[in-house]
Design goal:
This protein has 191 residues and is α/β, with parallel strands linked by helices. The chain contains 7 helices and 7 strands. The longest helix has 14 residues, at 44-57.
Length: 191
Amino acid sequence: MQKLIVASNSARRQQLMRDAGFQFDVHVLDVDESLDETIATNDAAEFLAEKKNRAYRSVFANEIILTSDTIVIANDNILGKPKNEAEAYRMISSMSGKSHEVISGVCISGHDREISFSDITVVQFENLTEEEIRYYIKNYQPYDKAGSYGIQEWLGMIGIQSIQGSFYNVMGLPIHKVYQILRSDFGISPL
């Protein structure tokens, strides 16, 4: 039986896979995550997941590889991971009182096939005060998160008014779709 490799340094993605009952190895390679300027904003996450998967495929030719990338789109701009406190503050402020999209791209490949997809969740924030935003950044330091926040953390608890789509997608992995594809297309199931 082929081994499942979760090619992600994200503790949240690894935890979601464990919580769903999957057994897997984690491998992390340094992959260039630059985007081609011709890529449409809504296709960026899936493009990056595919790019990462192909880099891993060259090393792990006979395994099943799962790669993923999550982006946040607010005001038609991709919000990546903030570099510092000021950037995190600008990102969160730009989403305050508005909705934004969280898109996770996933690519799963075996030696004879590759399946990729995107999942979109629309998140509506309450109006956030400067004090709330600064408290969150100081206490949670969201520098490893696209869009500068984690839905499962304090800001998500007090600031998210509603979501349309998968909660887990906002955490970084649409686990419901990953489960279905691994089970039906790759024969991997925790059952």
